[in-house]
Amino acid sequence: MFLSDAIWGFFFISQICIGFLGNSLLFMLYMYTFLTQSRLKKPIDLIFIHLTLVNVLTIMFKLIPDAVSSFGVRHFLDDVGCKATLYTYRVTRGLSICTTSLLSAFQAITISPSTSKWARLKSKISTCILPSFLFFWIVNMLIYIYIIKVVDAKRNVTIIGPVYSQPHCQSKQMELHYSMTFLSIIVIRDLLFVVLMMGSSIYMVSLLYKHRQRAQHVHSPSLSSQPSPEIKATHNILLLVSCFVFFYWSNNFVTLYLFYRPEKNLRLERITGILSSCYPTICPFVLMKNTKITLKFISFISKMRTASSQETFSR
Questions:
Q1: Is the whole-model pTM more than 0.85?
Q2: What angle (nearest 5°) sits at the alpha carbon of residue 227, between those of residues 223 and 233?
Q3: What is the pLDDT of residue 291?
Q4: Using an 8 Å Cβ cutoff, are 264 and 50 in contact?
């Protein structure tokens, strides 16, 4: 094992720890609020819970095999393990784009004015969340069944030509007809949800701009300096969508370049792993920013510390 391999491995482990702890903490906060704090829970919390769960699965099934291979264990997965690991990772990554699109669309409808044509959906969209999750899971599980057929564990052979390659797995030489159908389905799904995501984001940006213009006309410092919780949540979701689009398309670009590269490059394979896991790693910290649940949790912790210190001094 070379020093550079160990550096990659420690980098993967750091990303695993940060992403796992952030998503797990946020998942527990939302679950606690959803189950015990009825006055604080909102329908959008279900989307956050689902997104954090998908993020954890993406990080675990992508970065753990990459980290293990970086420390010199090249063939720790057999064909079945490789198929299961890669299939689960691709499904959860597909669920990530679907859930983020649903999140942006839900927030856009939530903050739309009562005079908007979207206002009629406000009372109905919360009932569509769970059926949407079921639809997303079924669609993505069906799409990636093809991976089970074409992917095997990596062998000690030189890989040349257009094949999908990761540090621990590789695809067989794909039949042109099936591979083009598979790629076309993925491209259509990605475009559909990215267009929905970007359309919702543009709509939210226009609403925020109009809100700011109205606040400036009112000339009230309280309106301009103290944004509402809905505005803060919208800012967070817009930042989340921007991070997703950047890392998602960066990863797709590197993956396609590696796919059609005549000779495979282990460093590029590891870079794709980092890029694909940056969004699920950053996501919980963006969502925790200025959220009421996080503020309540911080207040609860501070009260516990104060009570503990008072009890210590009283002794």
A1: no
A2: 160
A3: 59
A4: no
